[in-house]
Amino acid sequence: MSDAGLMIYCVVVLAIAILMIVSMWKIFVKAGKPGWGAIIPFYNYYCLFDMAFGNGWLFLLMLVPCVNFVMMIIMYVKLAKAFGQSTGFAIGLIFLSVIFLPILAFGDAQYIGVAN
Description:
Layout: H1 3-30, H2 43-53, H3 67-82, H4 87-95, H5 97-106
């Protein structure tokens, strides 16, 4: 890969990373959590699980191999429901997070609380 190609790749990856950080920050603020929590390792998962399940300590299951994959899927489904979105939107969060997290952050979805 040429130097120019590598530079373009780095700029695109950096732009996507910044978009994801800003999106998570906005989602946290919508849910009444501190926005800076989106950039703190482990605490961001605690907040996400608190938004989705009502119990942030469930994020510790993310440390268990194989269970973490299943818990992430369940968390995205419950997060979509907590913002009043459909199961189809949850599938979008699972497979296309780069697109659906900014939609959740900058769209008109409001945090309605933990879905039962």
